[in-house]
Specification:
single chain; alpha/beta; 7-stranded mixed β-sheet; 5-stranded mixed β-sheet; 19 helices
């Protein structure tokens, strides 16, 4: 065996043995990580390092060392023998299985392990990978008496100095770990046998490709399968229902019997694929746009959700609005306005006052998928109740342009089962688009905003402009979407 089976490799084996085999033997075929995933992984690493302060003064076995798992395991064994009390990234290898636990701490001559998760909730997958770690460590370290998951405490509110002991919530998984020892002994043998067969397992694609995580090898397994008209591109359909069609040898959308479909949002996609043209319920769209009152503007808000609260009165992962952009029209000229909140200061009140001031003269405020914006406004009501009536007035003017698309009253085959603003943007404006921007998603915007805490003034100004460009593009496409709808029903 070329290298031990790690925790992440084992979770892949649980998901799909083909995924596991490719990960171990054909890593070069792995799909490139999206920018969003890279940023999410970085946050997890940063939170794990921050949690080390709970047990300060420990030794990190990976510090100053090249990436050598066998060396890390030997160093861990040596530190334990030398009487170390706290070890970070403690590494253990047992029966060709490898784990690196975030924190290993000795309490009253007994060892307790801690795995850190940058999450508010404990998932079944978190428990399973913690139990796998326990199985390996217990066989190397008989004095291990507890294994805990450290997650962010959803009830913690920052008040003055950060209290790290209250920021994290500790949950023992010992009951599950002890109960499932035989399970892991059995499952790890199956994983090893899969590698010993020295051939890629013949496993069909299915809903398991996305549970618990999206497979790293979709580009390989789905090659020539996910064509533009594939049933696997159907939106608004569960993965299970999608693969029921696929397993019935219905591979293309235009092969579906449209008379068997009840849901309008699915039917309109099938009709678009069969006819290869856009589908529109003109009367419904016309009725929708007729309720929009002049003067109008479009509005988009971006939020920051720091895992570790940065401002007083905030909780882990609380949505902090930091940028809004508006597009309006005056005398035939397009106008844009953006407000950007510096990250160093909690200027949410200023943010709210600006947004209320800039929108008060408009009778309709256009948004695309208003859920985020309404959540932000609802939180600001709680924070600044003196503005309750003004915020209620603003909310009453909101028109969600996602509604005609969400309800299946407009669809174009080029949307490929995607009902987001970015899927319809090329239809609305072929010249302007997100592909030309350095930031292309709200998740990226959130993490890039957080990076301002570490940037110099020149770089910070460049990042600020990137964020404003992205937010303004959202607002612009939203504004133009109304013109697009009007052109279709006039």
């Amino acid at each position: 065996m070329s290298s031990p089976i790690s925790k992440s490799a084992f979770i892949k084996a649980e998901q799909c043995l083909k995924h596991f085999y490719l990960y171990k033997n054909h890593y070069y075929l792995r799909d490139s990580l999206s920018k969003e995933k890279q940023l999410i992984f970085k946050r997890g690493t940063d939170v794990g390092i921050f949690a080390q302060q709970l047990f300060a003064g420990g030794i990190n076995v990976t510090d100053g060392e090249k990436r050598d798992q066998q060396l890390f395991a030997e160093k861990t064994k040596h530190l334990i023998a030398q009487g170390a009390k706290t070890i970070y990234e403690a590494t253990f290898i047992y029966d060709d299985l490898l784990v690196m636990v975030d924190i290993l701490h000795k309490h009253e001559d007994k060892w307790i392990a801690y795995e850190v998760k940058s999450s508010l909730k404990i998932t079944d997958t978190y428990v399973k990978d913690a139990c796998f770690q326990y199985y390996v460590i217990k066989n190397c370290l008989p004095d291990l008496v507890d294994f805990n998951l450290l997650t962010m405490n959803p009830k913690y509110v920052l008040d003055g100095e950060l209290d790290i002991t209250k920021l994290f919530k500790t949950t023992s998984v010992m009951k599950d770990a002890i109960k499932n020892v035989e399970y892991f002994a059995h499952k790890t043998q199956i994983a090893k046998q899969t590698l010993e067969q020295n051939k890629i397992p013949d496993i069909k694609i299915g809903a398991h490709c996305f549970q618990p995580y999206e497979c790293d090898f979709l580009g390989t397994c789905w090659k020539n399968i996910n064509e533009p008209n594939s049933v696997l591109t159907l939106g608004k359909l569960t993965k299970q229902a999608m693969f029921e069609l696929y397993d019935q040898n219905i591979k293309r959308i235009d092969e579906i019997n449209i008379n068997t479909i009840e849901h309008k949002e699915i039917k309109i996609q099938v009709k678009a694929a069969i006819e290869q043209k856009e589908q529109i319920f003109k009367e419904e769209v016309k009725a929708f746009v007729s309720n929009i009152k002049q003067p109008m503007c479009s509005l988009d808000i971006e939020v920051w959700m720091p895992a570790i609260p940065y401002y007083n009165g905030t909780k882990p992962f609380q949505q902090i609005p930091f940028l809004f952009s508006m597009i309006s029209e005056e005398n035939g000229e397009m106008k844009n306005y953006s407000y950007f909140k510096p990250i160093e200061e909690d200027l949410r009140k200023d943010f709210l006052e600006r947004i209320l001031e800039e929108t008060k003269l408009f009778n309709s405020i256009l948004m695309f998928d208003k859920s985020l914006e309404e959540t932000v406004l609802n939180q600001l009501v709680e924070l600044y109740p003196e503005y309750r009536n003004d915020i209620a007035d603003l909310k009453s003017k909101i028109v969600d342009l996602a509604e005609p698309i969400r309800k299946g009253n407009y669809y174009h085959p080029d949307m490929k089962g995607n009902f987001t603003l970015k899927s319809i943007a090329p239809l609305v404006n072929q010249e302007a688009g997100f592909n030309n921007l350095e930031i292309q998603s709200g998740i990226s915007a959130m993490y890039i905003y957080e990076s301002l805490l570490e940037q110099n003034a020149i770089e910070a100004e460049h990042i600020k402009q990137q964020l404003v460009d992205y937010c303004e593009m959202d607002a612009l496409i939203t504004y133009q979407l109304l013109n697009f709808f009007n052109s279709k029903v006039d």
